[in-house]
Design a protein that fits this description.
The protein has about 190 residues and is mainly alpha-helical. About 85% of the residues lie in helices and about 0% in strands. Helix 1 packs parallel to helix 7. The two termini are about 35 Å apart. The relative contact order is 0.19. The model has no long low-confidence stretch (mean pLDDT about 90).
């Protein structure tokens, strides 16, 4: 979770600056964050509905993979349409991913009495990623505003986090299949 968080906050911190420096009006750039957060609002609301049909781990993996891919599209940001499309779509899938973190931790916790501790530990560790990610991207951006460096960094690190989520899903499926085989062998 912390790995994904290092790259995931790049859009929220740098979308407005990127749109301003690419020649879009300051008035529109001011609203780019509102566009991103409106997508996030809708994603956070619909994430629970999607997970009811697809499952919490599948929804987390899908939204993190798509969010990671959208980070790479910041390289192509040039017009009002691209800011709206990138901002809203990243906001939506990022919102779904953020919404799924606590249900995912709950899904991974075998003993419900440990749930609070696990959520606290998970968010304490992920806060480190949230804390260090945007400044690293800012250092990569430099005073020359070389956009591809922080985009590649943030997208790669978020993709690595998505790979961790995907690996978690694979391990969960292997454990479920093993549990089914063991219960059949035991005659349960």
């Amino acid at each position: 979770m912390s790995t994904f968080e290092v790259g995931s906050f790049f859009e929220g911190f740098y979308l407005q600056l990127d749109s301003t420096l690419h020649g879009l009006s300051k008035r529109f750039s001011f609203y780019s964050l509102a566009i991103l957060h409106s997508g996030s609002f809708i994603g956070r609301i619909t994430g629970g509905v999607v997970s009811a049909y697809a499952g919490v781990p599948n929804t987390t993996v899908g939204s993190s993979v798509i969010s990671s891919a959208i980070i790479f599209t910041m390289i192509g940001l040039r017009s009002v349409a691209s800011v709206v499309l990138i901002g809203f779509s990243y906001g939506y899938f990022g919102g779904v991913c953020i919404t799924m973190m606590v249900p995912l931790i709950s899904h991974l916790t075998p003993d419900i009495s440990d749930l609070g501790v696990r959520i606290g530990i998970a968010f304490s560790i992920s806060s480190i990623g949230t804390l260090v990610g945007p400044p690293i991207c800012g250092a990569l951006l430099s005073s020359n505003y070389i956009w591809w460096k922080p985009v590649i960094f943030a997208g790669t690190v978020a993709s690595c986090g998505s790979i961790v989520f995907t690996s978690m899903q694979v391990i969960l499926r292997i454990r479920q299949k093993a549990a089914i085989v063991c219960s059949k062998d035991a005659g349960v």
